């Protein structure tokens, strides 16, 4: 990461990454060329290549920035001191908030991997690294909820999340989020053996 003389992240790099993030997410990665990014970020090609040797590096940086944002969101839930079951619900609620937000265009990682299907490509590997972290985080939380092995339930949570992220830009996001949150609540009820809904759950 490039820094200026004061040790701060370069303004040009931040502007490039911000512009690329907006365009990649809203319009797709392959459809956005370097010339467009350079023009909208108001930098030269030389400046772009000084910070990012190629478009592939810019795409990876974009996904890493989204990854960090999601890690920060999850970190807030993990650091709240709440019981694991409530932490899982808080993470689900944050996902639902994203789906209901203006300009939602699906999951940045699922969108990216659809454009980079080669498992050996750096972009594909960046997506997998993010998903492995998320699955591991949910697995660790669900290990604290109920007594059965958590792996299946964690994969179930991730599949619910993936489905909601895909459906959220195709159908009514409110209904999608209600369905997603009810699914997460049902998963938690199954693990705890409870039939009552938590205070943060949606009712049918």
TrEMBL record:
Keywords: DNA-binding. The keyword Lipid biosynthesis does not apply. Pfam families: TetR_N. Residues 10-70 form the HTH tetR-type domain. It comes from the Bacteria. Residues 33-52 bind DNA. PANTHER family: HTH-TYPE TRANSCRIPTIONAL REGULATOR RUTR (PTHR30055), HTH-TYPE TRANSCRIPTIONAL REPRESSOR BDCR (PTHR30055:SF200). This is TetR/AcrR family transcriptional regulator. The keyword Cell inner membrane does not apply.
């Amino acid at each position: 990461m490039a820094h200026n003389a004061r040790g701060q992240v370069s303004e040009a790099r931040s502007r490039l990454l911000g512009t690329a993030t907006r365009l990649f997410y809203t319009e797709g990665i392959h459809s956005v060329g370097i010339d467009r990014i350079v023009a909208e970020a108001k930098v030269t090609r030389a400046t772009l290549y000084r910070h990012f040797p190629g478009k592939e590096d810019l795409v990876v940086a974009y996904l890493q920035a989204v990854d960090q944002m999601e890690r920060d969101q999850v970190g807030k839930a993990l650091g709240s001191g709440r019981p694991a079951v409530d932490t899982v619900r808080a993470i689900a609620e944050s996902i639902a908030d994203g789906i209901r937000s203006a300009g939602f265009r699906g999951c940045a990682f699922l969108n990216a991997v659809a454009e980079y299907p080669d498992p050996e490509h750096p972009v594909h590997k960046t997506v997998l690294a993010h998903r492995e972290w998320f699955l591991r985080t949910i697995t660790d939380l669900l290990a604290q909820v109920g007594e059965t092995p958590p792996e299946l339930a964690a994969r179930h949570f991730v599949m619910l999340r993936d489905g909601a992220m895909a459906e959220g830009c195709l159908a009514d996001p409110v209904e999608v989020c209600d369905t997603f949150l009810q699914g997460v609540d049902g998963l938690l009820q199954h693990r705890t053996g409870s039939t009552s809904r938590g205070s943060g759950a949606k009712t049918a």
